[in-house]
């Protein structure tokens, strides 16, 4: 995916599904083939590598299997290097994957043994064991020309590449659920329904919790995509996942929140992707959490947004600049069971009260590797996604951004990803200079943070006989 995102940023290939990941393999292959055809079969050398990787013949029943083993090293077991927790470590890592296709139906299972997880505060699974495993992917998908229905677990990200999406991301690892898509590249409706872990409500009772997010994307022109989306957290001690909240064609804010008046936390959002003629690609995502259209002075607006731009540099490089902001009270609610979290971890973003600037330049090396230097500034206030929501006058007067002392992280980093034969490596290494560490005035720290995984792999594929 890093190489694919690099080619999309350059404009070498068209984005098959702007701001929605994962990609469909056949749509990716079509974008790669069109780019290769437009360049007369030449084009970027990375195109040929990706076509060889993904454009295999899948006509008729088929199967794939593979395994990888190696290790991972990290300065913090948490995936988020801007909020380090815990000690550095080196652990083994192993995974196995099997997949099969029968016409329009695909089944995939990918499992991993990953001891690091037991030290990660964002891992909601079992801790205190010597061996920790997880399901990275496990789903059954029925795919047709204009519709797709997927049940199971896989990683999702709805937002610009390089940051967790606002309504949905894999920050808290892959999500189980039922996903539905209808349409084509011009008009596409996407929806995901999933259970969340039970959590305490404002009275301390354990509440059942559910999440539904849906998105309508319209391709206005070959250069412009616009989308509207809505995300709903529902909770209640004896509550079920009512059908009217799982209707992908309903606008829940109108039909339910201010229509029937039922309780829940609704976030409204919009996306835009625009590639300028002979210029950069611009992306914007905006979310408004629990909008009060009446009594506006009675509550602080809670908002999130991301702005991104990308384009080519020279004959083979790409650049990407981003700014993102999450207001101080975003993602949390009067009733804590309505927070945009699952087991205390964000469904999209995991931290409120922050902003981030970043600039990256991606450099392809030997067609199969991508080296990406990065400069970034991350600023974090004292607000946290699981803090109690302010009451009384504090609800209205709390700072919109940066509560209390601001922590600043200055980063010079390097990301590396790629594979050569059986070897695959991903690495994220950065020099961080932090002021007001943990929001303590005057505390500073400078050090190297890193995360890297290296594995060796084998794979097989073949046909499944019909008789």
Strand elements, count: 22
Kindly state the mean pLDDT as a whole number? 93
Poorly predicted parts? none
Tell me, briefly, the overall form.
globular
Structural class determined from secondary elements: mainly beta
Our count of helices gives: 5
| Helix-strand pattern | HEHHEEEEEEEEEEHEEEEEEEEHEEE
Gyration radius from CA atoms, angstroms: 22 Å
The description of the largest β-sheet is: 18 strands, antiparallel, barrel
Share of β-strand residues? over 45%
Distance between the termini: 37 Å
Question: What would you note in describing this structure?
Answer:
The chain is mainly beta. It has a domain at about 1-55. Helix content is about 10%, strand content about 50%. The chain contains five helices and 22 strands. It has helices at about 1-10, 25-40, 45-55, 250-260, 395, and strands spanning about 20, 60-75, 90-100, 105-115, 135-145, 145-155, 155-160, 175-185, 185-200, 205-220, 225-235, 265-275, 280-290, 300-315, 315-325, 340, 345, 355-365, 370-380, 405-420, 425-435, 445-465. The strands form three sheets. The protein has an 18-stranded antiparallel beta barrel. It has a two-stranded antiparallel sheet with strand order 1-7. Strand 20 (about 405-420) and strand 21 (about 425-435) form a beta hairpin. It is globular and about 65 Å long. About 35% of the residues are buried. The mean pLDDT is about 95.
